[in-house]
Every structure is written in C-alpha cells, then in structure tokens.
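Take a look at this chain, tokens included, and explain the fold to me:
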Amino acid sequence: MVSRPPVFDPKTKRVRKNAIAEKKRHTVKSLVISDHRRYILFVSPLFDGSVHDYAMMKSLFDPDLPWFEHSTLRLDLGFQGAEKDYRAPSNILLPHKKTEKVKKESISRTHE
C-alpha cells in the first residue's frame, strides 16, 4: 500500500488523512470455532461482510440437528437467538449486555 501525505481540503478547510485509507472496501468474514486452548477446530468459507454472524451460523449449522449438544459455546452478542434455535440452550453462553445506568456508574467510579 502506498502512503500519501495529508491533503488540505479547501471545501471543509480541514486537513484530510491519507486518501487511500478513506476509501470504502468490500469486506469478507468467516466463522471460526476454537477450543479453550485456542486450537482452531473449524473455519467457515468466506461470507460478504454484510451477512450477520448468526445468519452465517444458521446457514452452516442447521438448528434442527444436534450440533452442540455435547459442547459449550461461548458466543458474542452477534449470535442472539442461538439459545432459542439450537437444542441445547444450557450449553450456549451469551454475555449479558450492560444497561446504560451500569455503564455510567462504572465510568463515574473510575473518575473519582
């Protein structure tokens, strides 16, 4: 990648960052499953970046089959709904989203 110096934009009267970095790109992503030692067990084919994480999981692992009955899945909030759709909801762990009140309290405690 070629780096270019910052450019002054007369319309906005601001200095723009690297013009190459500002261009939008088509993104791709994949689903990766690993164990607790971070050993990679599965890497999915590539999907467009606009596809939701949970939609990727449902297309790869049919919810009607017992894929995760004997294993524990730790998923992020992009997989909301997995507890309902897959057969073993006790084996699927999703983080609990903090409320705004809790976030503000933790911020105020750190600044005291």
